Amino acid sequence: MTETTAGPVRDRLLDVRPGDRWLVAVAHPDDESFGCGSTIAHAAARGAEVTVACATRGEAGEPAPGSPDGDLGTVREGELRRAAARLGVGRVELLGYRDSGFDGDPPAGSLCAASVPEVADVLRRLVRELRPDVLLVLDGSDGHRDHLHVGAAARAALQGMDGGAPLLVEHCLPNSLLRRWLQEMRSLRPDTAYHALDPATLGRDDADITDVLDTAGVLDRREAAMAEHRSQASPFDGLSPDLRRAFLVRDHLARVDVPGDRA
């Protein structure tokens, strides 16, 4: 807690209580599980009412071998809803954009074809409706343009918001951890697009991380949620046990100062 002239103020990120409201804004189905699933489960297990807003249905994803048949967007939407339930999420909102893909010209109607102010307006309406205590996003430091776009829109949505703005928190992957991941991936998946990225800029600078959550207690929820995304290859498959556990039992977060937010 922090002290004010009116007394201590509860830290709404670390001191989660029943009835708190969280809004999680992500770009694709599976971001909520492969990305910030442990933080979501951690909040839900403590009684928070969690809403996941997913910008796309993941149409541009690459189906994993043996993935379910059918339209990929429909398949992935179903996976999202089942995974969210596993994490303890009470509500899922689809924002209606198409998946932009990793690179190339963004297709018409895709998330990155929409301006940041447009997407910010959509998120701002949700914030005003739900009045969340915390708005959680991925920080986009993995390099995916859709992740970056949602993060930029979240910051823009809260700019200048009068009173009652949520605390904006970015889920991060530390550079030190991603360097270990990239090294192992060179032998596991030598064709992945992430090898084109500069390792020095991959992930978040470790010094920027403000909070580290011990999420070992909700590992079973996260594992169950990730297993629902059968159409997609897990980024943790095939990793050494130590590295896999490093990703899954400690979540790294960064609080973002936005004019009008609250601590």
From TrEMBL:
Keywords, alphabetical: Hydrolase, Zinc
One Pfam match: PIG-L
Gene Ontology molecular-function annotations: hydrolase activity
Enzyme Commission number, as recorded: 3.5.1.-
Entries under Gene3D superfamilies matching the protein: LmbE-like
Protein name in the entry: PIG-L deacetylase family protein
